[in-house]
Specification:
This protein is an alpha/beta fold. Helices cover 30% and strands 24% of the residues. Helix 2 links the parallel strand 2 and strand 3. Helix 1 runs parallel beside helix 2 and helix 1 runs parallel beside helix 6.
Amino acid sequence: MSAPKPARPRIVYLGNLPEIARSLASLESVELVACLVEEGDEEVREIESDLSGRDVSVHRVRDDSDVRRALQGYGELAQAVMANFGIILRKPTLRIPMDGFVNVHFGLLPAYPGRNPLLSALADGERVLGLTLHRVTERVDDGPILGMRTLAVGDAPVPHDVFMEMRGLATVMLNEHLSALKSPPVGFSR
């Protein structure tokens, strides 16, 4: 008789980047149980299509209370990961996953916080841009930094092209982070 396979850490993705949703759904090290997408995001159809046939739910959310209700429906979660998600989360929501939330911020923190850090850095003439993986706290873009990736750009960078390249780097960064994630202990609750 073979030993039962250990449970994989269960995660939720909050964001609208289809390539990240696809990548997280295909990882062997974690189990993606849901994607939460902001109401009105155009990419939701692509994410729904990409995840059809998998046991991953896609929820459209409007605010923190929608996010909290959705997360509470999934029992024990190891972590929630965010990328390109604009809803501000409050402490009760942030406490749901065992290991909290992490965010891939499309700018180098602390220099470029906020909603459009890539455009701000380009407008400032920066030629080295980057991503920051950080823990999510109640203060926006203020949690402990877990890692950074940089990208050198030329003299006339095209914002869309830079954003697309950074999306690929974000996927790699999250995959590396999640490969070390552990499952919550049996019976865990917050």
